[in-house]
Specification:
alpha+beta, Aminopeptidase, 379 residues, 39% helix
Length: 379
């Protein structure tokens, strides 16, 4: 009979980077270096409400599962919204925080959040969920959450008693396109004309785009990007963003081969930039910033240039981030995202499960409606 045990780690550096890579592979967001950069820069810490609390599971002395985890003191930066749950707790005189979250801070990116290497994964899932429930009771956590896991993992967790939640994102898929014009041939005439008109505005404003990858990204370029990112966040949200210059510097130092910066220049002066991460078969458009407002530049730099890059480098998927119905008209298709949740308070768990059942029906309808708005020809 299997004998499992587990251990909590309050720093990613307490877990061997080679072992971590063996479990999580080349996914840029679950790379040891990415999580280390978040911690070392203090973007995630007890002070910011993201106390690292990673989970390792062993069978006898052999490591069989790993999960990046955080004790949360709020719900910012998660992109799976449970503010209403927290408010209901507060109205009833209960503490919703802390809660344990398995996910990647500030990154609405799907992947295997819990990575298991075992001949019988169901046994490991059962052990993990049992231990999480016990820790919630012992440590006064309101519950545990696994955000942006893949469908298979959400199903495994659902089978062990977790609630399953869905959402919608918009992603672009490469159907072996030769170039951007080949992609546009799949559009109906009106939508194709709209995209061409939008892209023409960039040329008319004398703006050029430059791609920089890996070692071509200089320290000065990364610093400039960070300034744009923080300036744009400040204007939009009143703060400098979740990520600081130390994080971007560490990312540049540790993961340059996974980074892609796109610069928008007018009269040789950089006026905007995006920072993307490159996975095995997916381009992840993550961060953007600009020094000024320029008509249609956000769409060009954040969407069309990513599509161009994906086509040129034969990348299957371009994930340009959460939400954004404006992506639909530009050829980004609605896809379902998954998360798993368990709330310790039985009455609240029951009520939220009922809510999620009704929410799922609305989201299914919403996804269908979004599909009808896609710009592609009816064939």
């Amino acid at each position: 009979m299997s004998h499992f045990s587990h251990q909590w780690f309050n720093s990613i550096n307490q877990i061997d980077a080679t072992q971590w890579h063996y479990f999580f592979g080349n996914d840029p967001f679950t790379q040891h270096a990415f999580l280390y950069a978040l911690e070392q820069s203090q973007c995630v810490s007890a002070k910011t409400g993201w106390q690292p609390h990673h989970l390792a599971v062993y069978e006898d002395d052999k490591l069989v599962a790993l999960a990046p985890g955080y004790l949360k003191a709020h719900s910012y930066g998660e992109y799976v919204f449970d503010w209403a749950w927290a408010e209901a707790y507060e109205k009833n005189g209960l503490d919703y925080y802390p809660k344990w979250l398995c996910g990647i801070p500030f990154s609405p990116i799907e992947g295997q959040r819990i990575r298991i290497m075992h001949s019988n994964p169901k046994l490991v899932y059962k052990y993990i969920t049992e231990q999480l429930k016990s820790h919630c009771v012992e440590q006064a956590w309101s519950g545990w959450h696994v955000n942006f896991c893949d469908k298979a993992q959400a199903t495994h967790l659902y089978d062990t008693g977790a609630m399953r939640r869905i959402g919608v994102q918009f992603q672009w898929f490469n159907n072996n396109f030769k170039d951007f014009d080949d992609f546009l041939k799949t559009f109906n005439a009106r939508k194709r004309k709209a995209v061409k008109k939008e892209r023409a505005k960039i040329t008319e404003q004398n703006i050029s785009i430059e791609w920089l990858k890996g070692e071509k990204i200089t320290t000065a370029t990364m610093q400039l990007f960070c300034e744009f990112y923080q300036r744009t966040y400040l204007k939009r949200s009143g703060h400098l963003g979740y990520l600081n210059s130390d994080f971007f510097s560490l990312l540049h130092a540790l993961m340059a081969d996974k980074l892609l910066i796109m610069l928008a220049k007018r009269d040789h002066k950089v006026i905007a930039a995006t920072l993307s991460l490159i996975g095995d078969n997916t381009l992840y458009g993550r961060y953007w910033g600009a020094s000024e407002e320029v008509d249609s530049l956000h769409f060009e730099l954040c969407y069309y240039q990513g599509i161009e890059y994906a086509i040129k480098h034969n990348i299957h998927c371009f994930n340009a981030g959460a939400q954004g119905e404006h992506k639909i008209a530009r050829g980004f298709q609605p896809i379902t995202t998954y998360s798993a949740h368990h709330i310790i308070h039985p009455d609240f768990n029951h009520a939220i499960a009922d809510y999620l059942k009704r929410e799922r029906q609305h989201i299914d309808i919403y996804k269908q409606q979004c599909s009808t708005l896609l710009p592609f020809k009816n064939e």
